[in-house]
Design brief:
Elements lengths: L1 E8 L2 E2 L1 H9 L5 E10 L2 E10 L3 H6 L14 H17 L6 H4 L1 E6 L5 H13 L9 H5 L3 H10 L5 E4 L5 H14 L5 E8 L4 H10 L22 E8 L1 H6 L6 E10 L9 H15 L7 E4 L8 H13 L7 E3 L2 H4 L6 H15 L1 E2 L21 E2 L4 E8 L3 E9 L2
Parallel strand pairs: 5-6, 5-7, 10-11, 10-14
Antiparallel strand pairs: 1-2, 1-8, 3-4, 7-8, 9-15, 12-13, 14-15
Length: about 400
C-alpha cells in the first residue's frame, strides 16, 4: 500500500504544487544559466532545463539538526525534503516501526555531481593539492539513502540502486518485494538526482541527445530530451501494517516488471521493453485490456519514442484505444535516476484526481508514434496506472499502481 508521497522538481516543492501546475498544463522547462565560482574563476552553462532553486529547497531543512549528516550534496537535500513530505503524510514521523522494521531503497543515476564538479575544479583549475574532506561521503551515489536513514533513525536495510533512468523504478519495485516477502513492514522508496552541474551538462551535450528548445515527446519535430533535477519518495507498507495503525491508503503498488535488452548502450530494443511491460501486468494480476493511464517514458528523442510507441502498440493492440497515455517529462524534464519515481507519484495523483495531465509541446503528431495521447487535461475513470522507464544500457522497469478503493 502507498501511504505517503512527496516530491520536489522544477515544477515546485511538494506534491500539491506539482500537481496544480502540471494539471493546468504548466511546464518547468526554460532557458536559464547556472554558474559555479571557483576562486576567481567562474564556470557556467546555459540552455533549456527544468531548473530547481536549490536554496529554496535547502530552506525546508533549516529547522532540522543536520550536523551529524555532514556536508549535503543537492542530491541528498532533494531526497530529504521529498522524504519529509512523504513520511509526514504517512504519519510515521518518530513512529517506532522506523527503528527496526523499515528500510530505505532509493534510485540515483550519477550521485553528487555538484560536489564532484567543485572538487575537480579545485584540483584542475586552481591546482590545489586537496579537496574538501567531505567530498567522498557527500558525493557517493548511496549518500541520499544514508542521510534519510540517519535523519529518521532507521536501522533496517538502506541502499541505492543505480540503473540510469530506471533507477528509482527498480528501487520502488524491489522495495515492494521486500515488503511483500515480510522482510519489512515499511519501505521508504523513490529516487533523487542533481545532475545540473557544469561537468554533467557538458557530458550530456556531447552525447548529442539534448534538445535545443524543449522536450516534445512523440512529436514529429522533437529534438531530444531536457534535463531536470529533484526527488520523489513513496512510503510503502504492508496492507496489514497500514490498516493496523489506521493509515490513510493512497493507492496500491500492484506490480513490477523488469528486463534487460542485452543490446546497445543508447538504443532501446522493442522486445526488451515488451518483456518488462508484460511482466509487470503478470505480477499485478491485471490484464493489458483493463483500461489504464499509461505514463510513458517519453524522452522526446528521435530514437526512443518510436520504439516505445511500437512496443506499447504490440502489448496492448486494439485495446490501446481505451487507455490514456501521458508523458510528463514534457513538463518536469528528465530527472535521470529520480524521474521514474516522480512519474509514478504524478500518475498515482492523476488516478486519485480522475484527471490526466496534458502532454506538452507537441506541435505535429508523428505517425511513427501513434498513441492515445492526452494533449490537454482530460477527465479519466481509470483505476490502473502503468508507469514505464526504459534506461540507457537497455535497463527496463515498469511499475503498475492501482487507485485507492
Amino acid at each position: 500500500m502507498v501511504t505517503g508521497m512527496g516530491c520536489v522538481s522544477g515544477l515546485g516543492l511538494g506534491l500539491e504544487t506539482t500537481w496544480r501546475r502540471i494539471s493546468r498544463g504548466e511546464g518547468a522547462i526554460r532557458v536559464a544559466e547556472r554558474q559555479m565560482a571557483v576562486g576567481e574563476q567562474e564556470f557556467g552553462f546555459s540552455g533549456p532545463a527544468a531548473w530547481l532553486h536549490r536554496s529554496e529547497c535547502e530552506s525546508r531543512l533549516v529547522t532540522r539538526d543536520l550536523r551529524r549528516l555532514g556536508q549535503l550534496d543537492p542530491a541528498s537535500t532533494y531526497a530529504l525534503v521529498a522524504m519529509l513530505e512523504a513520511v509526514g503524510e504517512a504519519g510515521l514521523m518518530d513512529h517506532p516501526v522506523l527503528a527496526r522494521r523499515t528500510g530505505v531503497v532509493l534510485g540515483c543515476g550519477s550521485g553528487g555531481n555538484a560536489t564532484i564538479d567543485l572538487a575537480y575544479a579545485r584540483l584542475y583549475a586552481q591546482g590545489r593539492a586537496k579537496v574538501h574532506p567531505q567530498t567522498i561521503p557527500s558525493s557517493m551515489t548511496s549518500a541520499p539513502a544514508s542521510h534519510i536513514a540517519m535523519l529518521l533513525g532507521i536501522h533496517g536495510p538502506a541502499f541505492v540502486l543505480s540503473s540510469a533512468c530506471a533507477s528509482s523504478a527498480h528501487a520502488i519495485g524491489e522495495a515492494m518485494h521486500m515488503v511483500r516477502s515480510g522482510r519489512l513492514d515499511v519501505a521508504i522508496a523513490g529516487g533523487s538526482e542533481a545532475c545540473l552541474s557544469h561537468g554533467s551538462w557538458v557530458a550530456w551535450q556531447s552525447l548529442g541527445v539534448l534538445a535545443s528548445d524543449t522536450c516534445r515527446p512523440f512529436s514529429k519535430n522533437r529534438k531530444g530530451m531536457v534535463l531536470g533535477e529533484g526527488a520523489a519518495i513513496l512510503v510503502l507498507e504492508s496492507e496489514a501494517h497500514a490498516k493496523a495503525r489506521g493509515a490513510t491508503i493512497l493507492g496500491e503498488l500492484a506490480g513490477y516488471g523488469a528486463s534487460s535488452d542485452a543490446g546497445a548502450m543508447t538504443a532501446p530494443n522493442q522486445a526488451g521493453i515488451e518483456i518488462a511491460i508484460r511482466a509487470a501486468h503478470s505480477d499485478a494480476g491485471i490484464a493489458p485490456g483493463e483500461p489504464a493511464l499509461i505514463s510513458a517514458h517519453g524522452t522526446g528523442t528521435a530514437v526512443n519514442d518510436p520504439v516505445e510507441a511500437a512496443a506499447t502498440n504490440a502489448v496492448y493492440g486494439p485495446v490501446l484505444a481505451g487507455h490514456t497515455v501521458i508523458a510528463t517529462k514534457s513538463a518536469h524534464g528528465h530527472l535521470i535516476g529520480a524521474t521514474a519515481a516522480l512519474e509514478f507519484v504524478i500518475g498515482m495523483k492523476a488516478l486519485a484526481e480522475g484527471l490526466a495531465p496534458p502532454v506538452l509541446n507537441l506541435i505535429e503528431p508523428d505517425p511513427a508514434c501513434d498513441l492515445p495521447l492526452a494533449l490537454e487535461a482530460r477527465p479519466i475513470a481509470h483505476e490502473v496506472l502503468v508507469s514505464n522507464s526504459f534506461a540507457f544500457g537497455g535497463l527496463n522497469a515498469v511499475l503498475i499502481g492501482r487507485k485507492a478503493a
